[in-house]
Design a protein that fits this description.
Blueprint lengths: L1 H10 L5 H4 L6 H33 L1 H38 L2 H36 L4 H16 L1 H17 L3 H23 L9 H25 L15 H35 L2 H17 L1 H19 L3 H28 L1 H6 L5 H14 L3 H16 L3 H26 L2 H23 L19 H4 L6 H11 L9
Helix pairs in contact: 1-8, 3-4, 3-8, 3-11, 3-12, 4-5, 4-6, 4-7, 4-10, 4-11, 4-12, 5-6, 5-7, 5-10, 6-9, 7-9, 8-9, 10-17, 11-15, 12-13, 12-16, 13-15, 13-16, 15-18, 16-17, 16-18, 17-18, 17-20
């Protein structure tokens, strides 16, 4: 494959996983080399959405409004199964840190198998409920029909959409973030090229509008998945999967679920919050506000990509160092990531505040829509730094396998703080009440993550043989308690205070 050969050639110019030495090398240097490609991956991921936003914005305002409803639901579908990818990444990282290559490869093979099954099931079920869900979010008429068409294509192609994310997670757990970045670059370029062809029609390709944008994305992702799986089967990038290790191992699946269910709850909770906010904006305000909000959220998601990338880097370094029982180094990694993302994103917030209107105007020719987007950005810009703190500490918790803790912090931030404030703010204050909810929740979430991390309950391995039977103390309560009970206890723990140990 041409793209695979190009990927090998370029990645040879970057530092390899062995050169990074995540267990002993300088924390800042290693985190930088891990996170920079992830930033690019996230930028390229956002480019998928921005390409659709740009071309559909040229197509019609109804199309732009339709994907405002559609994008959060795409994230929701992926989030339902994303816990398996997180579990695979954590296990690969910890087995890599402990030096057990055989179990590392077995974990990767099992992750691929169960993730493929999950994506087919979730996509199939989602396909039949999409029209009803779109209606619940407040969309109606042609806008609802277009949003449903977009989501139906994505649902049928969820195997490809989700599969490449799993590939990224496994490679990140191993310590290679360059290979996924290069693959993403190639497929994004392809998507940008074919997007307008499928949206507006060209030659033998008919005009498909919103549906065409979804089809272009799925086709590009299918190519990236095929190359990624090929790399894993050959083992030329470290991890080597095999069909013989993909037979369903229910004991291993149980172990993955102990890590993956809370991770899915975190992603799903975040997605539900985003969808609920779309519903609040869509039912309380007019169409121009919905479109402006959609543009602003796309921009907002791109602005804090450095925080998300550093969080993933911290996750990988934490996983490997905990596998090697280097707990102090794991803590140092989290502190370093939190400090520097706070400083960098705070500076980015100042820039965003100053240039909010020009930035919003790039994605629409309607001045009213651009004004809504600019107002949102100005309100949230000075909370950008706190997102870095939240993502860094949550990333370290996930790397330690404490995905239930990370899930509770995320759900509390979005579901217990942001959403209620946004709802009552929209009714009593207007759009500014919704924008203020983002600012308040970002600051509060950072504080919760920092305080909880200082408790130190994350300092334990999950890859020991005795833990393989599901005895992951913090995630399951330590005595065989259910994950649901564990999460419930953690949520309850937010009420009386964060300083006491459970």
């Amino acid at each position: 494959m041409v793209l695979a050969k190009i990927t090998d050639l370029i990645s040879s110019k970057f530092k390899s996983q062995e050169e990074l030495d995540l267990l002993n090398g300088p924390v800042g240097k290693n985190l930088f080399y891990l996170s920079l490609p992830v930033i690019m991956i996230n930028l390229l991921q956002t480019a998928y959405n921005l390409a659709d936003t740009f071309w559909l914005g040229q197509y019609s305002n109804n199309a732009l409004e339709a994907i405002t409803y559609a994008f959060p639901l795409v994230f929701f579908l992926i989030s339902l199964g994303m816990g398996l990818a997180v579990a695979g990444s954590v296990l690969v990282a910890q087995y890599e840190g402990s030096g057990n290559k055989k179990k590392r490869n077995y974990a990767a093979s099992q992750t691929i198998a169960f993730s493929a099954l999950a994506s087919v099931i979730i996509g199939g079920i989602g396909y039949f409920f999409i029209p009803d869900i779109v209606g619940l979010l407040g969309a109606s008429g042609p806008v609802a029909a277009s949003a449903a068409q977009y989501l139906e294509v994505i649902s049928l192609g969820l195997f490809s959409m989700f599969g490449f994310l799993v590939f990224q997670s496994l490679m990140r757990g191993y310590g290679d973030t360059v290979t996924p970045m290069l693959l993403m670059l190639g497929t994004v370029i392809l998507n940008i090229i074919i997007d307008p062809i499928f949206i507006f029609g060209w030659g033998p390709v008919p005009e498909m509008g919103v549906k065409g944008a979804a089809l272009a994305t799925v086709l590009a992702r299918t190519l990236s998945l095929a190359i990624g799986v090929g790399i894993l089967f050959t083992g030329r990038k470290g991890i080597e999967i095999s069909l013989s290790q993909m037979h369903p191992d229910l004991n291993f699946f149980k172990k993955m679920m102990a890590i993956g269910i809370p991770a899915s709850a975190e992603g799903t909770g975040r997605s539900l919050s985003v969808n609920a906010l779309v519903a609040v904006v869509g039912t309380v305000f007019a169409g121009s506000v919905v479109a402006g909000y959609g543009i602003a959220v796309r921009i907002f998601s791109m602005v804090f990509l450095p925080a998300a990338a550093v969080g993933r880097g911290v996750e990988s370094m934490t996983g490997q160092n905990i596998g090697a029982e280097n707990y102090d180094r794991a803590a140092e990694t989290a502190r370093f990531g939190a400090k520097w993302t706070f400083l960098i994103l705070s500076l980015l917030g100042v820039i965003t505040f100053v240039f909010a209107k020009p930035i919003s105007s790039v994605f629409t020719t309607d001045p009213e829509i651009a004004a809504v987007g600019a107002e949102f950005l100005r309100y949230v810009s000075f909370s950008f730094g706190f997102i870095g703190v939240l993502r860094s500490y949550n990333g370290s918790l996930r790397g330690a396998g404490k995905t239930a803790t990370a899930a509770v912090i995320s759900i509390a931030t979005l579901g217990l703080i942001r959403l209620p404030i946004a709802y009552f703010g929209a009714i009593n204050i207007g759009t500014r009440g919704v924008w203020a909810a983002f600012f308040i929740s970002n600051v509060a979430g950072a504080g919760i993550a920092y305080l909880w991390y200082q408790r130190g309950t994350w300092r334990q391995r999950i890859t020991e043989e005795e833990k393989a039977k599901g005895e992951v103390s913090e995630e399951t309560g330590g005595t065989g308690g259910s994950i649901t009970e564990s999460v419930s206890k953690k949520i309850a723990g937010l009420i009386p205070g964060l300083s006491s140990r459970s």
